[in-house]
């Protein structure tokens, strides 16, 4: 398939600013102490790293206070190649977040697939991007509180070229909390027992071989890997403060440019570095 | 009419054409429909009878151009025609031609050999088709044979035209002998295609249920397609994971064609982008560089790139096509494959199934293992290294999983397929894929160890590793071939020289084939990484029960039993053969059984002693037993078959048990039994009914067993007066092993049925533990048998000479002969598990019968005697239930009904048989024994043979035994008919039908016993 190329070759990133309502308990749950200013600062650092260091073209969607969780833009779409699947987040109120995204995607000439449309809402399918791990060769969909089987089916139906495997999410609330891509054939995985269980399942399900980079802290399991057009490997990972024991592991990665990027505030809300951005490769080369 | 000078001449000529010529012809007139062209080379079997026979078909129809796969046609149809079922196309052409032919069949011969004329060609083709059909309908006929064998005049080979749909949609007619094996046809096709790397490919056909099946190269075509048409498709069977490693462009081209079919039919799902990209490579390969002048917007519409092709897609394809400028067709194919191979469903063979909880899933068999899908999602995956055993039992398919690091025990995962055929199909596909991709060389059939009946299946071709090695040796100039496009647009895009290398290629080809053949037989397979070499167990399955019960099964060593967790597969008898009166038929049967024989023979060397045998040996009588073959035969033969065949089947069936323990002496006796000379022709047991029947003819007993799925009918025929009965419990045996001792009659249907339906494949060889099991029988029974035997024998040796054709297995033959001389008692045959021949007095053959439920009888109920009770008593062998030490798998209920035995056929009403659907039941009808069996003098076993025939749902096993006793000869025919099917089959009706047919076939015999053994799904599950 044309669209199959080593993971990490992204050209664009779509991000969405931190709203004033950041950290506001969405469903009357317990309020979590967050520092919005700090969150915005961290967000700014991340944007800077992606734009200046990695060299991605950044497209920022303005924050909307109406959507306290809109900064987690990763959840509302799954993008592969030139196809973007607008997901159906578990929380009803989040489903409107995608509206602004659609415009951006159409500007990018993406082929936008609406999950809500296909399922008509009646299918009960739910899917959030943070439960989807795309490795460049296949999809793993974590079945979690936020994502169900039907949602995974829709994803499989959208990205037909790829194997889509479902795995239970153990050791975290979302799949991306316990693992993320650390290279074209490298998956960073949390060392926790639950994560290992998920890892074993993934190993059983895949036809491909991946190197597993096991990190002692769960928070370190979520990184953002991008291979720049200049063929430089960048890894955005949590800072030493957040994961002191895992830094050494990252440093073992050969020839990587490590970009420690704090996301402590997002972590408090269950987010992670990857939550902030949708990575896109707009440079399709079929040949 | 047939063969008139003209036609013959023509015929002769045609066959001589080389494939190239044919190709050229086709090319030269693209306008002619490919199918027609294809039929040219074949001789026209003109058979008036045929024509007349099918008047109904002769419907006037105007030629339908669209139906023809000709290039032009394809274009118009966007290539759709390629995907039309071949028979559809054929049908039409057929009907066109018919009208002409039927009125003046005699014309054909006179036709000038103008092969170029489409019309005439068509006629020929049609005629052939007719013949085919007729043959199919009639099953076997010799009628046309004389006329039909243009190629080999003088020989009486019946030729049939096979129509093979090639990947480019064209038809390749190929004439084969009616009894040709799949390999022959496949080789012909590859030769025609000039294909050397052929191991990735195979021929498929649609069975009656319209399911795609692979033609087994090692087996007769006719037996595989059964009643289907001789219509095949050439397809990729094993999708190479890395097509770039293929040696030749032509191989890649064919793979591309297959993938295009897969994609446009939706079997290989792709995204829009991939459809567009692959489509653009297709255009580049077939049309060459995009030419703005020549390629208007609609040029693309002739192609089918996706199941649903939108304008948008076509635009995209065209756009990408432009970007491929300069790419050669071969390069475009490579690019196509490089992209296609990455698709997640590339090379995945999907089968519908349900998991243990009844959830609909799909089983995907691929190069790396078994994938489990729910909807489109992959929910599990079992790589080959993780799989220890693959087996199926009825409609269940099982895989045994190697324990993980943290686990101690192996686990077994079961899936439910829609029916047992589906289960068997997925099992076979797994076995083949495992062998092809995982092993360095095919697993060697452990022939010596077990006899498997037809179904002992394994992949016998080359593995991928072997084919790669072989491919590396290909040194020929790249063969010239035409891509579809080239046919369309007459210009050659390939860089390859347009030289026909055919001769050279052919040579290589043949060499290859030879090599392949050799490989097949090579022994040891090495599993690449894992130690496991899969075993296939089919016959063995009967596993537990069988093993334990059957002491004697000699050859089979395959273990039937499940090890460890035990999944057993029981094999049903795969072999079914029809008995026909004619020699030809007999020959056919033999051929069909050849495999079995082979295995049998190999196995034969090992003497197996059943317990029975052992016991017998101990007894005086045993020592004496011998077969009196000689004198009896002919008379009997006249009644039945003139020829004797050995049916290995019995052995095969018995496969499960290999009785190592038996005393050697016993062995000798047994051996004869195993080899049975089939002589008699029992007329056909096989009924067209869907079920399988196996019939054994026993002197006068017929036993019909219906297993849920199976019906077994045994008929006993008496020759003259006497009676020997030999029974076999062939198929059943394996499963049923239990019966073994008793000799004769019993066949537990259940066992049979199971056997057919089950098979195991172990990645690792473990063979049998069975032997140990085999021997458990009750001593008592054995003794009884012995006694019986004695009685019978003496009477009639003289009357009927038995002829045996021992040819097949020398050893056995020898034994038999010896036996003849000795002429003492009976022989026991064990077909399958334990067919024992017991010479009984004629009528009584029944007495012997016992039924033991195949599966171990955990619960067996004694047979109810309906009509006459006597039988059981007399025989000393009352139906007994034999318990095997092993845990019973299926509950069985046995009911025995005995009739007084009359020389006439007793009528058996199916209604009388209570059928319990949920459990396994065995019902036996017996005729009352007339004579005291027990006391009689030992009869001499003249001959014993088993013949098995298999049709769609029916397996018929016929076991024929002739025994001389006191001057009387007794012929006992046992038919076992196994009806397998889903619940919707009316068993009663099937049974009634089976009985009726058996009677019709052997009007001079009476039915002495009918055993109905029924197993339902519930029962099958291991408990």
DSSP strand count of chain A: 15
Q: Biggest β-sheet of chain A: count, sense, barrel?
A: 3 strands, mixed
Compute the number of helices of chain A.
8
Largest sheet of chain B: 8 strands, mixed
The average pLDDT value of chain A, as a whole number, equals: 89
Mean pLDDT of chain B: 56
Widest β-sheet, arrangement of strands of chain A: 2-1-15
Rough outline of chain B = globular
Structural class call of chain A reads: alpha/beta
Low-confidence stretches of chain B: 1-154, 447-454, 486-755, 764-937, 1017-1023
Strand line-up across the major sheet of chain B: 20-21-25-16-15-24-23-22
In angstroms, what is the radius of gyration of chain A?
Answer: 17 Å
| Residues in helix, % of chain A | 10-25%
Output the number of helix runs of chain B. Answer: 36
Q: How would you name the oligomeric state of the polypeptide chains in this document?
A: heterodimer
> Low-confidence spans of chain A: pLDDT under 50, at least 5 residues?
none
Q: Determine the strand fraction of chain B and express it as a percent band.
A: 15-25%
Task: Tell me what the structure shows.
The complex is a heterodimer of chains A (287) and B (1023). With 287 residues, chain A is α/β, with parallel strands linked by helices. Chain A contains 8 helices and 15 strands. Chain A has helices spanning 36-54, 98-107, 115-119, 149-158, 175-178, 193-205, 247-251, 264-268, and strands spanning 12-16, 57-61, 77-80, 83-86, 111-114, 132-134, 138-143, 163-168, 179-183, 186-190, 211-215, 224-227, 233-237, 256-260, 277-280. In chain A, the strands form 5 sheets. In chain A, strands 2-1-15 form a 3-stranded mixed beta sheet, with helices on both faces. Chain A has a 3-stranded mixed beta sheet with strand order 3-4-5. In chain A, strands 6-7-8 form a 3-stranded mixed beta sheet, sandwiched between helices. In chain A, helix 1 links the parallel strand 1 (12-16) and strand 2 (57-61). Chain A is globular, with a radius of gyration of 17 Å. With 1023 residues, chain B is an alpha+beta fold. Helix content of chain B is 35%, strand content 15%. Chain B has 36 helices and 25 strands. In chain B, the strands form 6 sheets. Chain B has an 8-stranded mixed beta sheet with strand order 20-21-25-16-15-24-23-22, with helices on both faces. A 5-stranded mixed beta sheet of chain B has the order 2-1-5-3-4, sandwiched between helices. In chain B, strand 10 (387-393) and strand 11 (396-401) form a beta hairpin. The radius of gyration of chain B is 29 Å and the shape is globular. The N and C termini of chain B lie far apart (61 Å). The relative contact order of chain B is 0.10. The chains are: A alpha/beta (287), B alpha+beta (1023). The A-B interface holds A 1-4, 81-83, 111, 137-138, 141, 149, 152-153, 156-157, 159-166, 204-207, 284, 286-287 and B 269-274, 277, 320, 323, 335, 339, 342-344, 368, 374-381.
């Amino acid at each position: 398939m044309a669209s199959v190329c080593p993971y990490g070759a992204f050209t664009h990133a779509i991000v969405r600013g931190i709203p004033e309502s950041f950290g506001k308990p969405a469903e009357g749950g317990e309020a979590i102490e967050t520092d919005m200013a700090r969150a915005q600062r961290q967000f700014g650092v991340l944007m800077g790293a992606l734009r200046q260091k990695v060299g991605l073209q950044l497209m920022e969607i303005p924050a909307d206070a109406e959507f306290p969780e809109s900064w987690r833009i990763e959840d509302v779409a799954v993008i592969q190649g030139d196809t973007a699947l607008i997901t159906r987040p578990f929380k009803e109120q989040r489903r409107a977040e995608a509206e602004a995204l659609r415009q951006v995607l159409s500007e990018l000439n993406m082929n936008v697939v609406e999950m809500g449309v296909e399922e008509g809402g009646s299918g009960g399918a739910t899917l959030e991007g943070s439960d989807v791990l795309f490795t460049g060769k296949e999809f793993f969909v974590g079945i979690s509180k936020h994502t169900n089987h039907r949602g995974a089916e829709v994803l499989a139906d959208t990205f037909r070229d790829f194997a889509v495997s479902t795995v239970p999410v153990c050791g975290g609330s979302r799949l991306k909390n316990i693992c993320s891509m650390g290279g074209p054939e490298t998956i960073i995985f949390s060392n926790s027992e639950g994560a290992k269980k998920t890892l074993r399942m993934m190993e059983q399900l895949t036809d491909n071989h991946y190197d597993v980079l096991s990190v002692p802290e769960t928070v370190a399991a979520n990184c953002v890997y991008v291979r720049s057009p200049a063929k430089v490997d960048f890894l955005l990972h949590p800072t030493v403060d957040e994961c002191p024991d895992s830094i050494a592991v990252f440093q073992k990665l050969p020839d990587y440019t490590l970009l420690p990027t704090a996301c402590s505030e997002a972590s408090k809300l269950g987010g992670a570095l990857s939550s902030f951005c949708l990575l896109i490769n707009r440079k399709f080369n079929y040949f | 009419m047939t063969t008139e000078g003209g036609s013959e001449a023509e015929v002769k000529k045609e066959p001589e054409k080389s494939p190239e010529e044919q190709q050229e012809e086709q090319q030269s007139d693209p306008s002619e429909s490919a199918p027609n062209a294809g039929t040219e080379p074949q001789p026209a079997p003109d058979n008036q009878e045929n024509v007349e026979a099918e008047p109904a078909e002769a419907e006037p129809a105007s030629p339908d151009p669209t139906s023809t796969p000709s290039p032009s046609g394809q274009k118009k149809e966007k290539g759709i025609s390629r995907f039309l079922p071949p028979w559809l196309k054929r049908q039409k052409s057929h009907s066109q031609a018919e009208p002409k032919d039927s009125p003046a069949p005699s014309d054909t011969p006179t036709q000038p050999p103008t092969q170029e004329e489409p019309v005439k060609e068509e006629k020929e083709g049609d005629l052939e088709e007719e013949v085919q059909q007729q043959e199919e309908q009639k099953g076997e006929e010799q009628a046309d044979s004389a006329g039909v064998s243009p190629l080999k005049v003088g020989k009486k080979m019946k030729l049939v035209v096979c129509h093979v749909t090639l990947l480019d949609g064209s038809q390749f007619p190929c004439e084969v002998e009616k009894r040709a094996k799949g390999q022959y046809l496949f080789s012909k096709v590859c030769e025609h295609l000039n294909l050397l790397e052929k191991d990735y490919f195979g021929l498929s056909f649609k069975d009656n249920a319209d399911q795609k099946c692979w033609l087994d190269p090692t087996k007769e075509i006719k037996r595989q397609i059964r009643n289907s048409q001789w219509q095949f498709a050439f397809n990729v069977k094993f999708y190479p994971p890395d097509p770039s490693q293929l040696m030749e462009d032509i191989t890649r081209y064919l793979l591309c064609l297959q993938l295009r079919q897969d994609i446009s039919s939706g079997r290989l799902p792709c995204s829009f982008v991939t459809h567009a990209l692959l489509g653009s490579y297709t255009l580049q390969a077939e049309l060459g560089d995009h030419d703005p002048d020549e390629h208007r917007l609609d040029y693309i519409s002739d192609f089918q790139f996706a199941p649903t092709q939108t304008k948008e897609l076509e635009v995209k394809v065209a756009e990408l096509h432009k970007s491929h400028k300069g790419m050669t067709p071969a390069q475009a194919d490579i690019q196509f494959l490089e992209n296609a191979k990455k698709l997640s469903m590339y090379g995945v063979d999907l089968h519908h199934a349900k998991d243990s909880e009844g959830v609909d899933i799909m089983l995907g068999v691929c190069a790396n293992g078994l994938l489990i899908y729910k909807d489109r999602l992959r929910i599990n995956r079992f790589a080959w290294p993780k799989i220890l055993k693959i087996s199926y039992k009825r409609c269940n398919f099982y895989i045994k999983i190697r324990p993980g690091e943290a686990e101690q025990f192996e686990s077994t995962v079961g899936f439910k397929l829609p029916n047992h055929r589906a289960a068997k199909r997925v099992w076979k596909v797994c076995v083949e894929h495992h062998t092809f991709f995982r092993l360095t060389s095919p697993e060697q059939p452990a022939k010596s160890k077990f006899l498997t009946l037809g179904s002992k299946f394994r992949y016998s071709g080359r593995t991928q590793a072997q084919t790669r090695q072989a491919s590396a040796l290909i040194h020929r100039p790249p063969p010239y071939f035409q891509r579809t496009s080239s046919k369309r647009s007459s210009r050659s895009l390939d860089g390859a020289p347009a030289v026909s290398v055919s001769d050279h290629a052919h040579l290589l080809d043949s060499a290859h084939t030879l090599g392949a053949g050799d490989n097949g037989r090579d022994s040891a397979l090495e599993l690449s990484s894992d130690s496991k070499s899969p075993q296939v167990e089919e016959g063995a399955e009967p596993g537990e029960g069988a093993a334990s019960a059957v002491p004697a099964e000699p050859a089979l060593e395959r273990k039937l039993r499940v090890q460890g967790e035990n999944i057993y597969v029981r094999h049903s008898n795969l072999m079914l053969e029809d008995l026909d009166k004619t020699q030809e038929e007999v020959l056919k049967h033999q051929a069909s059984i050849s495999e079995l024989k082979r295995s049998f023979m190999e196995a034969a060397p090992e003497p197996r002693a059943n317990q029975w045998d052992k016991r017998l040996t101990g007894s005086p009588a045993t020592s004496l037993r011998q077969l009196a073959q000689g004198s009896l035969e002919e008379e009997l033969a006249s009644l039945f078959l003139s020829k004797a065949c050995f049916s290995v089947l019995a052995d095969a069936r018995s496969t499960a048990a290999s009785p190592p323990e038996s005393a050697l002496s016993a062995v000798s006796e047994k051996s004869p039994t195993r080899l049975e000379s089939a002589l008699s022709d029992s007329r056909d047991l096989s009924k067209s009914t869907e079920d399988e029947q196996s019939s054994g003819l026993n002197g006068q007993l017929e036993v019909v067993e219906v297993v849920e799925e199976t019906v077994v009918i045994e008929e006993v025929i008496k020759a003259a007066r006497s009676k020997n009965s030999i029974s076999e419990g062939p198929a059943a045996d394996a499963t049923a092993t239990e019966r073994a001792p008793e000799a004769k009659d019993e066949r537990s249907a259940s066992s049979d049925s199971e056997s057919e339906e089950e098979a195991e494949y172990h990645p690792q060889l473990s063979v049998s533990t069975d032997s140990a099991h085999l021997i458990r029988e009750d001593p008592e029974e054995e003794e009884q048998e012995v006694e019986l035997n004695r009685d019978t024998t003496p009477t009639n040796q003289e009357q009927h000479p038995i002829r045996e054709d021992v040819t097949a297995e020398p050893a056995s033959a020898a034994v038999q002969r010896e036996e003849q001389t000795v002429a003492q008692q009976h022989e026991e045959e064990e077909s399958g598990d334990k067919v024992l021949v017991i010479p009984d007095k004629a009528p009584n053959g029944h007495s012997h019968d016992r039924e033991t439920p195949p599966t171990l009888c955990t619960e067996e109920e004694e047979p109810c005697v309906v009509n006459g009770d006597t039988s059981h008593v007399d025989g000393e062998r009352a139906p007994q239930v034999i318990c095997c030490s092993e845990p019973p798998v299926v509950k069985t209920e046995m009911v025995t009904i005995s009739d007084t035995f009359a020389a006439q056929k007793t009528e058996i009403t199916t209604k009388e048989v209570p059928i319990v659907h949920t459990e396994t039941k065995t019902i036996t009808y017996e005729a009352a024994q007339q004579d005291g069996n027990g006391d009689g003098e030992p009869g001499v076993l003249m001959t014993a043979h088993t013949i098995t025939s298999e049709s769609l749902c029916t397996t018929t096993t016929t076991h024929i035994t002739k025994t001389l006793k006191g001057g009387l000869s007794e012929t006992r025919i046992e038919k076992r008919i196994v009806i397998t099917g889903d619940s919707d089959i009316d068993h009663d009706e099937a049974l009634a039908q089976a009985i009726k047919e058996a009677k019709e076939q052997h009007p001079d015999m009476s039915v002495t016993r009918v055993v109905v053994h029924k197993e339902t799904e519930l029962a099958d599950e291991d408990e």
